């Protein structure tokens, strides 16, 4: 059971897998990339304390959900900052399912050669850069155009991965990477896992360029899923919101 929240602010209760958090993943158009981003945060929108400590803001069910997300996609993407800070495995371990290809955005060639996500376990490992630089044996390097001095174009990233056969793509972190993809409207679905915790200060989850009026805010069609141990999943359909906004503008 979950709540569906539409643009009018009305809520209606719905049940069934047809509108669950993975609805549409298998039926996404095969002619373009399908991109989902995932973010875990506190009630006040923090993903870590000021010292960078974040283990564990979200609880067990939220971590299970993240691993289910990984099992649903062809590639999981993180920025090199996340690799340096957390050294994640980026594999599926908490639930049944296959591990996706592991992709690191590494604009400045800072990726440690010994990073856990580069371990050779039979899964594709890909590094995205603007200019070529050495990579460990067996790791693919794909070149993507920049969108600024320290960032690669989100649309070019997903197009490059799609051309490499990776159609369903999870943008897992960090916050700057997810924010950049949101800013460039390169996300179909956003899963925000909110923990019942107030940190009060720290690293914000999403930062976008400032807007002057609320009318310019993103208003995704959102389904709300309470998790069994207290966290809440907000499943935000950004493509549906964009199509509705376009229809409103044309009316």
Walk me through what this model shows.
The chain has 251 residues and is of the alpha/beta class. It has one domain: Dihydrofolate Reductase, subunit A (3-Layer(aba) Sandwich), CATH 3.40.430.10. Helix content is 21%, strand content 28%. The chain has five helices and 15 strands. The protein is globular. The two termini are 34 Å apart. Residues 1-16 have low confidence and may be disordered.
**Strand fraction:** 25-35%
| Uncertain stretches | 1-16
| Strand line-up of the largest beta sheet | 2-1-14-15-12-3-11-5-6-7-8
Q: List the domain count as a whole number.
A: 1
Radius of gyration: 18 Å
Count of discrete alpha- or pi-helical segments spanning 4 or more residues: 5
Q: What is the CATH superfamily label?
A: Dihydrofolate Reductase, subunit A
Q: Could you say which overall geometry the principal axes of the C-alpha atoms support? A: globular
The overall strand count is: 15
Per CATH, which architecture? 3-Layer(aba) Sandwich
CA distance, first residue to last residue: 34 Å
Short key terms for the protein model shown above:
251 residues, alpha/beta, eleven-stranded mixed sheet, two-stranded antiparallel ribbon, disordered N terminus
